[in-house]
Write a structure and sequence with these properties.
It contains 6 helices and 7 strands, in the order αβαβββαβαβαβα. β5 (75-80), α4 and β6 (102-106) form a beta-alpha-beta unit. The protein is globular and about 35 Å long. By secondary structure, it is an alpha/beta fold.
Length: 166
């Protein structure tokens, strides 16, 4: 694995859909994950698995989790299947309010190379990945996972770099 990818921390809130895809793909690639989730690890499919090392907010309001994840990240990648849901709109509003770089990608016509170019310009160490929950965008979790696999291939750095972290 490249030095750059080992240093990337994927931040997400653990909800079904884009959030869960980001956490699963990151862990499958040995990347660090972090993020905030609502109190009691609430998600629409039940408590978020302890496999995902997320911190609970004091509130069970998902808006608190959304804002904290944007705040604590260097940039936000928003994955959709077209229309955004209210939670996704809240993510976008927080990114704008906090002046955080963000990119919206419709995974139906996704261009991982374009998203990777944006990532390269921004150079975030902590990348928040967000988007609608699965019940608001059926099929998003699977499509987001496929997009993120392609995205990670595009952001990989040549293995000629010093792997010691220097």
């Amino acid at each position: 694995m490249s030095l750059r990818r080992r240093r990337l921390i994927v931040v997400s809130g653990g909800q079904t859909g884009a959030d869960r895809a980001a956490l699963a793909v990151a862990l499958a690639h040995g990347l660090a994950v972090d993020g905030w989730c609502p109190r009691h690890r609430w998600a629409e499919d039940g408590p978020i698995s302890a496999v995902y090392p997320l911190r609970e907010t004091e509130s069970d309001d998902p808006a608190e989790r959304t804002r904290a994840n944007v705040r604590d990240s260097d940039a936000t990648l928003i994955l959709t299947l077209g229309k955004a849901d209210p939670g996704t709109e809240a993510t976008l509003a927080a990114a704008r309010e906090l002046a955080k770089p963000h990119l919206i990608v419709d995974v139906r016509a996704a261009d991982a190379a374009m998203a990777a170019a944006w990532f390269g310009r921004i150079g975030p160490r902590r990348l928040n990945v967000a988007g609608p929950r699965e019940s608001h965008a059926p099929g998003l979790q699977e499509k987001a996972a496929a997009f993120l696999e392609d995205f990670l291939r595009h952001i990989a750095v040549d293995d000629d770099f010093d792997q010691s972290g220097r």
